[in-house]
Amino acid sequence: MSNSPRTAPAGASSGPRLDQATRLALFRSQLEIRLLEKRAYDLFLQNFVKGTSHLSLGQEAVAAGFAVAMRGDDYTFCTYRGHAHTLARGAPMVGVLGELMGRKCGLMEGKGGSMHLTSVRHGAMGSYAIVGAHLPVAAGAAWSAQVRGTDQVAVCFFGDGATNIGAFHEALNFAVVWKLPVVFVCENNQYMEYTPIRSVTAVEHPAADRASAYGLDRLVVDGNDADAVYAAAAAAIGKARSGEGPSLIEAMTYRYSGHSRADPAKYRPAGELEEWMKRDPIALYRARLLELGLPEGALREMEGAVQRAVDEATEAAKASPPATVDVIDRDVWADGGSSWRN
Amino acid sequence: MAELTYRDAVAAGIAQEMERDERVIFLGEDIAAAGGVFKATVGLLERFGPKRVRDTPISEQAIIGAAMGAAMTGLRPIAEIMFSDFLAVCWDMVANEIAKARYMSAGQMTLPLVIRTANGAGARFGAQHSQSVENWAMSVPGLKVVAPSNPADVKGLLAAAIRDPDPVIFFEHKALYATKGQVPDGEHVDRLGTAKVLRDGADVTVLALAAMVPRALEAAERLQREDGISATVVDLRSLVPLDTKTILAETVKTGRLYTVEENPRLCGWGAEIASIAAEECFYDLDGPIVRITTPHVPLPAADALEDATIPSVQRIVETIRRTAG
């Protein structure tokens, strides 16, 4: 498994000491992402989801680990692969699925779509579909927190591919020079789109190996181990919150599906997916919880509850009318309209 | 009233708003300690401190991205892009992110921010430091576009832009920074989206923006003196929102419409206005709408070439003289 992370594997008994409530929150968040993403995939196959979608199947531990470590008023900035991060901050499933399906009940009433999920009241400050663009925006939100004297933190997720674009480097330098409370999180799922990140990048770890250029620590974490992610997140968020400036974390993980719905991912070497699936973040976490003494029945109960929630959200989204055309010329401007002339 | 230069009016407008609203913050390259490469922001750092007036690295994407992030979280940033040509470096931030965030989020986000930038020719800086790119901004839904022609409008429209809840691209004209004019004393706040009739005439209507306004006025005086042609001159001041009421009313009065633009020929703002006038007051026109523009070439640097490229008083006079009969 040439692309496996170099960090220690997530064995059933490894990981930091966490209280049971935190562990259950981590498990539940991962489950919600997994089951919702599977449902999104099914709905696409059934032609309920149009356009494109970029799934986080296999990458759930990164979104869950950070979201559970964040405070309610912290800011999340993520990419077009953003269902997981938006959901993890507490956005309602029906709003996420409704938006994917172009329904009135969507988080943005159908105006954004899968790649732009936003739920400001949950701190999900947008999903950005131009690679790298949101890193400076996250830095700006962190600057705002610094100026306003709150101790909010901005967490910015991006893929390995974003590390080769200018905005990544501009944002990192800027954030360090201004000592901004922002955590940059590279979800290294090994492939930029269809091309292995290693084949187009000057260093082995596309984010972590660049950290020293900005005076930051080199941080690589096992992105398939929610406890490890949580620990790294808590440390970086704590550092940012206490005014000690930004961090850059590279989480090693793998996406089970192709880049987008259009991609069958035939470029991946035979057996690579299967190797990574042996370290499936949710299976690993479930095993850990059992080893720690949680009863099988309790886990099943949670799994059932999450599945029911996804089923109910699916039915509610299907029952919602399509996006209504009256929103087309709404909300270009803050006055609610779109007028450019008198 | 006090006499101020156009550049001092920039600093005065920013200072007025920073004094009034502590959410207003200001960032850009060389804007703080150095007071701006055009000296338009002198004294702001000393007055408001480094927390609110901050020098940045040469990172246009970071500057505009940071302004966006600050605006969506409760502040009212002003970002400077030193030359408007450099908007191309951060156009993703401007056109894809800032302009669309409110719409894509169905109104969940509000972005009260101003991007100030030095626009236009006259300094012999060549093709990458002299363009007039207000038409780029005008073509993107979600951006307001303002371009003042005199110190009073600089202060009043900048104040209005800073108070506006939407993103405003504020084009200052670098050939006008040294010009002087009377600026009202005390708080001065203008209204976006309002054109101003600067000269009332009976024969032709001339629409102009920024540095083309004083040229249009001078051309009007010459036409009156030398040809007996009486020209109305309208300073558009704002492209988005566009004051079509004033434009159409002033066009109908004379029946002849001219636009004077620094934009290169294709898709300059005059084309949009000509299209509106043709559609909405065609039967009140007494002749073709005529656009006086920069030719469709990159801007040359030499003074003799630049002067022959940008619409001059002479070219405005000759064009109107030839066609207005």
Low-confidence sequence ranges of chain A: 1-14
The most extensive interface between chains reads: A-B, 52 and 50 residues
Average pLDDT for all residues of chain A: 94
Q: What letter string, H or E per element, gives the SSE order of chain A?
A: HHEHHEHEHEEHEHHH
Per the principal axes of the C-alpha atoms, what is the gross shape of chain B?
Answer: globular
Average pLDDT of chain B, rounded to a whole number, is 98
**Main beta-sheet strand count, sense and barrel state of chain B:** 7 strands, mixed
Oligomer: heterodimer
- If you compute it from the alpha carbons, what radius of gyration of chain A comes out, rounded to the nearest whole angstrom? 20 Å
Largest sheet of chain A: 6 strands, parallel
What is the number of E strands of chain A? 6
Number of strands of chain B: 14
CATH-derived architecture of chain A:
3-Layer(aba) Sandwich
Give the strand order, joined by hyphens, for the main sheet of chain B: 3-2-4-5-7-6-12
